[in-house]
């Protein structure tokens, strides 16, 4: 008689757990719980620490911490490096995202069609996103090298430049900004293309067939049917891209380190150089926190526009 009792007692926890998972009010929190925990540990705690450090005088060489209020924010905002970095951040983010959305839409439209080798093209397209960005950026550092640049060699072979007219891609301000934007577009383009391709695939075929029957040409079909239908998806892709552009520092850190003459310095790299390499953790945290209201405003604006586009 003891064996059935043990069997019944062992089945009770399993039944109770199964019943718990069958209840919607418990299943949802259990499924989303790990993601929330990850965000709290990776984003929430560092954000609170940054808030705490930004109103103190903490530094690498001093173990004591005193409350200083908004002194760090005022000191940072008055420097020319910070003001230049804000302008560079917006130029870097906005220009790169315009290019990403334009090229991503073109690639998504091309990949929507059936052709031989489509799987191989998709594989090549995803490589920049799945490959380690530091290794990819080091490869671009060689491409832009002023002495051994394969890009300059190709331009010379095509007769577009002379041996004495090789470009210093990372040494001239406007070329340096163009170079870091190009590499960032190369990195983010696969993500935007996949998002836009999913949006294009969700458009019912009946809509395309009706436009074809009505005699709509390619450009009219594209501008009046396809683009309006995927506009919310384009805004989501642009939002993700802007968040990456505002917060990412790897491309600029590897290629230019903010140079020449701080012409490619953005807020994320300035915060790193000030807080980590410079040892002034308090001012570095204050610089990093300037990104928060900008990103919040961008996210709210994009989501409102996307919601209106869905309603229309």
Characteristic key phrases:
MetI-like fold, 14 helices, 312 residues, mainly alpha
- Unreliable stretches covering 5 or more consecutive residues: none
Number of helices: 14
Let me know the largest β-sheet: none
Beta-strand percentage?
under 5%
Helices and strands, in order, run as: HHHHHHHHHHHHHH
Estimated helix fraction:
over 70%
Provide the CATH architecture.
Orthogonal Bundle
CATH topology: MetI-like fold
Structural class call reads mainly alpha
Count of individual beta strands: 0
What is the 3D form?
A: globular
Give a verbal description of the structure.
With 312 residues, this protein is mostly helical. The protein has a single domain, classed as MetI-like fold. The protein has 14 helices and no strands. The protein has helices at residues 2-21, 24-54, 71-77, 80-111, 118-130, 133-143, 150-157, 173-201, 205-213, 218-247, 250-255, 267-277, 281-289, 291-311. The longest helix is centred in the first third of the chain and has 32 residues, at 80-111. The mean pLDDT is 82.
Summarize the structure.
This protein has helices at residues 2-21, 24-54, 71-77, 80-111, 118-130, 133-143, 150-157, 173-201, 205-213, 218-247, 250-255, 267-277, 281-289, 291-311. By secondary structure, the protein is mainly alpha-helical. The chain has a single domain, classed as Orthogonal Bundle (MetI-like fold), CATH 1.10.3720.
